[in-house]
Amino acid sequence: MALILITGAAGFIGSHLAERLLARGDQVVGLDNFDPFYPREAKERNLRGPKAHASFTFVEADLRDARAMADLMERHRPQRIVHLAAKAGVRPSLEDPASYVESNVHGTLNLLLACRRSPVEHFVFASSSSVYGKDVQAACTEDAPTDSPASPYGATKKAGEVLCFTYHQLLKIPMTCLRLFTVYGPRQRPDLAIHKFVRLIEAGKPVPFFGDGSSRRDYTFLDDTVSGITAALDHPDGYQIYNLGRGNPVTLNEMVEAVERVLGKRAVLDRQPEQPGDVCTTWADITKAKTRLGYQPKVQFEEGVDRFLAWWREADR
Fold it and tell me: Is the domain defined by 3-183+220-246+284-297 classed in CATH 3.40.50.720?
């Protein structure tokens, strides 16, 4: 049993990870600032499960507040950290890059600095497939170039990886960076593609459809991502980077067709040009995670869409 700090604990991935760790007997401190990117009410619902556990403690605070981060670390003394909190979204980062740098870079730095006085056994940082940039032609290994992100969001995630490397060297704390690939499933953020498409198609409303439909995303079901994060958390090993995807990208056209099939309705597509900051393909080579972490994604794409829809139809939203 370990005491684990999860930042972004009220979010889509964070709340599920908290439930997984609590179920296996860990103690969890959850941190979130309820950023208004989507409604607080949705995040409060996400926390219902974790808050039902006696081993869960919730702290509302902001990573950008260095003093609050130092106080949090000194008060709770977590043994491990999973740093999921970040301002999310490629397109919004084009409109307000400064806030992304403040939250995703300065916030990460504040947490790392707090580890100087309150060292941890392992620091896990949630990075993103966005670090690989636009010119992906094949499955990306962790040593592929990441010096050309296509968006400020991707740049902040690359900066976070570099900061983790620096403070691994300075603090001698094991650091693991996880490049997450298009996670979807129950509680998915309402702005993300599958959630948005289901909502709009079900309502008979036009669906924004960017480009010709050939863009590809390595959709990864939530349960598989949480399993990968948990495995990484339990395997500190110096400084490491792992891709957590499914290794089988799906085109935008295929995604729409899958949603249409599970809903039994046709989409009304509002065709628009490709958007600045969007990439053509995300595609993970997951060999390293399989070999070193035993990571093995199990949920096929259409099964995942079915499971999302089952949740969506029953959800209190």
Answer: yes
